[in-house]
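Gfo/Idh/MocA family oxidoreductase: structure tokens wanted.
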Amino acid sequence: MAGIGYWGSKHVRTMRSLDSVSRVVVIDPSEERVAKLRHSFPEVDGHPDLESALPHIDALVIATPPSTHADLACAAMAAGKHVLVEKPFATNLADAHRMVDTAAEREVVLMVGHTFEYHAAVWALREMVARGELGDLYYVDTARLNLGLYQHDVNVLLDLAPHDISILNYVLGSTPTSVECWASRHAHRRLEDIAYLRVRYDEPHIEANVHVSWLDPCKVRRVTVVGSEKMVVFDDLESEERLRVHNKGVTQPEESGDLSLPPMSYRYGEVVAPYLVVNEPLALEDEHFVDCVLTGMRPLTDGHNGLAVVEVLEAAQLSLKERREVFLEEVRRGSTSLARLRQPAVAHSREAV
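Answer:
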């Protein structure tokens, strides 16, 4: 376990609960943090850096600041270790490709911590969309808001939006074609603390709106899917009815020329909270990672899954910079061109060595 902050300590807890894990080793330069963790988990071994820990581990979970993800992951995989990287998978597309390529070269498991793809409510939402239960999809709206927590090395877009983008890709069973992004800085001098994204998909043909904020008085974790037949709200802050299906809708009457008639007719039906299997997504995610390490199975959220989300983040950052709609194909082409430009330089440096 590299990094034992908020998420790292949670991974330590879940890994210790797995019978298939014989020992948990933590990597953190802070002796104080390691000592604090040992109050709860006294049997955990501690190391100040990855190099000293490598002989004692088979796999690594990375929950360090996002700017360090790629270097740590590639170093561990180069040593033959399997890796689970917390979100965001990478802070740029070049690093994401570097991790995916290294995993393929070393034939190790690479997985991304898109925890909501292991959430029972998100599973149910995907099934509803796949069955056509909601009718024609009109739009999806997500909100992930809170007061904090400000990060040191990434803005709110890279910190919070990976959750919603991964949910959208999973539920819709597709990846976007284009992104528009609006963001601004308020309390922080360098990093955007609120952002809005419009994410367009071709299959199904739908737009999704994503709102993320570190600067909001209310904590919100909500996904709303609106269809022609039904509407669904996934509220992750609800303790019981996290998923609610609203049998509501609107229809446009046939043209009659009578302006006294209402322009739309409204349907109000029951609200149903479907039964969901109670699960802890992080525990399922960690268990799945360990199973993949032991069996060689491909993770459900593998490196390419992480790469798909980073493509959207890269396009959003470019959209923010250039104030325009950015197509995903643009950043894919740009990433390929960059890799080709870098290849001769790498080859030359190897010859020099």
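Residues 6-114+282-348 form a domain with the Rossmann fold fold (CATH 3.40.50.720). The mean pLDDT is 93.

Cheers.
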